[in-house]
């Protein structure tokens, strides 16, 4: 039975075939429900794996130190994933967040068992305090990077094998070549690019992979799209999108490499309004509340942009939407945005 | 934290009655109209309840509610029994989840389906039935009883291939609902939960759960030798079943108090999916057992639970389902039974499509939450 274990502080998430999305897109659309992860987002995989690997390294290392203590400067989904995974595995964690962090996110971090310290006006100040004041003074301290680390990517990559197995089972077993069923298209949102890089890595491990990838960002947080247009890594001057979880001013280099070299990747940008409309519709039709960052992916399917992005899709084509989840959203905001955007 | 993907289970370690279970045998020609749903541990609710809370996420069923199991099994069994290639047509009278489950299951099994809905049915619900592949959705009558009468007198007699789909009072429905507890048993590493909480409308779900628990106990007592007393007594611990209703549709609660079936004069709760004036006879039989408990929550508590659940778990459910969650959120659990910290309690998140974000806002205002 799949369960969180010392090797894996995340879960195998369900893959649901969606009748309503399939009808809109004219092909078979599946939802990979990463919003059901223990931390409510896909970050449980990447950051969970980083923490597992750090624990392994520390138990192997010859100088006998104490147990690792995990530090992260994120009041968002990465922070929640770090705290949830540390707690599941029985390790301590500390989160430093800027004063601007919403109180209910701080409560969520605390209920999972973290020390939460509020410091500084911006993320930059919080991170600086974490590194200089806390990490430097703790010989057992481990800094947890939100997205730019191979262990994070490897954790995210586990999703690929999962959906390939699930698609095979839905199709009634392995195909006549004894291969698992691949998705024709996968759609995911891109922030710092950790999820995207992980999925590309996972797809590389599949023999004869034919899966195409649509990487979605919102306008104002489109660091990958801008980089591809420029042919080099671009640092955005700032983030102007409401999809703050996608708000990395620069994607990781590996994400840019994958997107730039592969013909299988399409980078697209949607407006905030499209992302919000999609998440409002998702809440009403599917009964799940997700962040605008996740709404960006849903918008591609709701607006049926698929057929333009990937020609030759037919009714049997299989499309996986990564419902990446996220906690930085609630009913109150839903209500507020409904009047602003819908 | 546990989860099962929507995939067939691995080998059951216990020989459960899998004919009606969710095993997808590739050689079995009738697709299963329901899925194995995830069982998720909830740190927030565990903290509130003082024991380990697991959520059985029936809201992810193809029809949006647990009804996919019971009604799905009834439809599937009918198709299985009919000579092959008989074009069956399934008829349900329902303005809600039973109708949607009937249509969804019929479509999965490539059969026709017609739902007669009372005029009060919301357009969004009718649209969902049509989207799910209903052959016809016919609005008729002011109440579900009127709709049902029309169906039985005007539609069914005219269709030689017509099959009536009752909402809850049928053995095939209970057999389908039973698969829920079989799944929980596996997901909890072949252990029965200490407690299981579900909402009660007509009682189909509660009957299925009790029936399933009985079957597991029977199989277990066969498995253990008479010498392993310890194991035996442990495995034979009786699961406490708690049926929750809202005040205003407490047909189960009243029947247990009176020790006989009671017909309510009407329904006065917003949890319309629980709005059944008379429960199934079998539900009363189980309800009189010492391990089965009946309890009530107010509409306000149910709505409050829906709102809190949406904040904590990002999932929107209808008040009928909120009633189960309210047992924990309202703190009423203590009035029903004492729990220990290591106890495992399953809450059946029964789902339901009769909800929208707008409805939640309106209730939020109405109840001043």
UniProtKB/TrEMBL annotation, chain A:
Keywords: Cytoplasm, Gluconeogenesis, Lyase, Pyridoxal phosphate. Residues 12-325 form the Tryptophan synthase beta chain-like PALP domain. Pathway: Carbohydrate biosynthesis; gluconeogenesis. The keyword Lyase applies. It comes from the Eukaryota. GO terms for cellular component: cytoplasm. The keyword Lyase applies. GO terms for molecular function: L-serine ammonia-lyase activity; threonine deaminase activity. It catalyses: L-serine = pyruvate + NH4(+). It is found in: Cytoplasm. Its EC number is 4.3.1.17. It is an enzyme of class 4 (lyase). One of its GO terms (biological process) is isoleucine biosynthetic process. Its cofactor is pyridoxal 5'-phosphate. Belongs to the serine/threonine dehydratase family. This is L-serine ammonia-lyase.
From TrEMBL, chain B:
Its EC number is 4.3.1.17. Belongs to the serine/threonine dehydratase family. This is L-serine ammonia-lyase. One of its GO terms (biological process) is L-threonine catabolic process. GO terms for cellular component: cytoplasm. It is found in: Cytoplasm. Its cofactor is pyridoxal 5'-phosphate. It is an enzyme of class 4 (lyase). Residues 36-351 form the Tryptophan synthase beta chain-like PALP domain. InterPro entries: Ser/Thr_Dehydratase (IPR050147), Ser/Thr_deHydtase_PyrdxlP-BS (IPR000634), TrpB-like_PALP (IPR001926), TrpB-like_PALP_sf (IPR036052). Pathway: Carbohydrate biosynthesis; gluconeogenesis. It comes from Kwoniella dendrophila CBS 6074. It catalyses: L-serine = pyruvate + NH4(+). The keyword NADP does not apply. Keywords: Cytoplasm, Gluconeogenesis, Lyase, Pyridoxal phosphate. Its main location: cytoplasm. GO terms for molecular function: L-serine ammonia-lyase activity; pyridoxal phosphate binding; threonine deaminase activity. Gene3D superfamilies: 3.40.50.1100.
